[in-house]
TrEMBL record:
It holds the Pfam family ClpS. Keywords: Hydrolase, Protease. GO terms for molecular function: peptidase activity. The keyword Hydrolase applies. Coiled coil: none annotated. SUPFAM superfamilies: ClpS-like (SSF54736). Residues 28-89 form the Adaptor protein ClpS core domain. This is ATP-dependent Clp protease adaptor ClpS. GO terms for biological process: proteolysis.
């Protein structure tokens, strides 16, 4: 290596850069707060539809309640569309953004 060449990035650095690029293309499945659905209903729907653990679903539900919305899943439109439809069919407002 001469004095003008730059060192090659480490494999770990490359993986992080790739993850950032992939995340930029990922869409969010957003669930919105309402005054109708119970915490337990939203938790059960997130567990069933998004395959969340009980703890993940509980945390998302609290964020939804206090902040008005929460990104419950990231992915492609093809992955998220059936999930969004299932959440909407359960009476919970959701959107892909």
């Amino acid at each position: 290596m001469n004095q003008f060449s730059m060192p090659l990035p480490e494999l770990e650095e490359i993986e992080l850069l790739l993850e950032e690029l992939i995340d930029q293309d990922a869409l969010d499945l957003i669930v919105f707060n309402d005054d109708v659905n119970t915490f337990e209903h939203v938790i059960q729907v997130l567990i069933k539809v998004c395959k969340h653990t009980h703890e993940q679903a509980e945390q998302c539900t609290l964020i939804i309640h206090y902040k008005g919305k929460c990104s419950v899943k990231k992915g492609s439109r093809e992955e998220l569309k059936p999930m969004c439809e299932a959440i909407l069919n359960a009476g919970i407002q959701a959107a892909i953004v």
